[in-house]
């Protein structure tokens, strides 16, 4: 059996390349929907935030700065996929919301990504998948305890 230190090194060394390859496959799978990955990921996160959110909350979910998000939101609004408005309760706050077309695209994107996950994880047993999720959650918790962010 390999040593714990060896297994830790292998796990740490595999996580980033696998995440990058997963993202590349997801980007390729989304090509048929004619949406760039940055726009698709923004729509997905907004959809996962119930389709409506404060702009700052969306930026936090995407782990990007508010100014970086503005260009993406401009394009999505131009394409009719979301609306932006000043918050009625606090005029300093901007709110974004999916339009009907944006919601439909989010559902299509989520379907494509669910199919990809199914293909990639088809040969992984439920108990193995549960164990992997548990390990990743514990790693994430340990990182949070050290003051690092997700991602």
Give a quick set of tags describing it:
three-stranded antiparallel sheet, 151 residues, globular, Arc Repressor Mutant, subunit A, mainly alpha, 3 strands, 67% helix, 6 helices
Number of strands: 3
Order of helices and strands: HHEHHEEHH
CATH homologous superfamily classification: Winged helix-like DNA-binding domain superfamily/Winged helix DNA-binding domain
Overall pLDDT confidence: 92
CATH third-tier fold name: Arc Repressor Mutant, subunit A
Query: Whole-number radius of gyration?
Result: 18 Å
Question: Could you name the CATH class?
Answer: Mainly Alpha
> What is the number of independent domains?
1
Could you give the distance between the termini?
Answer: 31 Å
Strand residue percentage:
5-15%
Low-pLDDT parts are none
Structural class: mainly alpha
Largest sheet: 3 strands, antiparallel
Net shape: globular
Please tell me about this protein's structure.
The chain is mainly alpha-helical. The protein has one domain: Winged helix-like DNA-binding domain superfamily/Winged helix DNA-binding domain (Arc Repressor Mutant, subunit A). It is built from six helices and three strands, in the order H-H-E-H-H-E-E-H-H. It has a three-stranded antiparallel beta sheet. A hairpin with a 7-residue loop joins strand 2 (82-86) and strand 3. Helix 1 crosses helix 5.
């Amino acid at each position: 059996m390999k040593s714990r230190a060896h297994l830790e090194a292998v796990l740490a060394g595999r996580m980033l390349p696998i995440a990058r390859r997963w993202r590349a496959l997801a980007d390729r799978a989304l090509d048929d929907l004619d949406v760039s990955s940055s726009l698709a990921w923004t729509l997905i996160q907004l959809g996962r935030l119930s389709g409506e959110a404060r702009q700052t909350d969306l930026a936090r979910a995407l782990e990007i700065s508010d100014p970086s998000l503005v260009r993406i939101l401009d394009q999505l609004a131009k394409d009719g996929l979301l609306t932006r408005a000043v918050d009625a309760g606090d005029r300093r706050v901007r709110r974004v919301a999916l339009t009907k077309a944006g919601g439909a695209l989010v559902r299509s994107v989520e379907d494509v990504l669910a199919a990809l996950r199914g293909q990639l994880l088809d040969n992984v047993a439920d108990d193995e998948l549960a164990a992997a999720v548990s390990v990743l959650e514990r790693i994430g918790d340990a990182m949070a305890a050290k003051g690092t962010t997700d991602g």
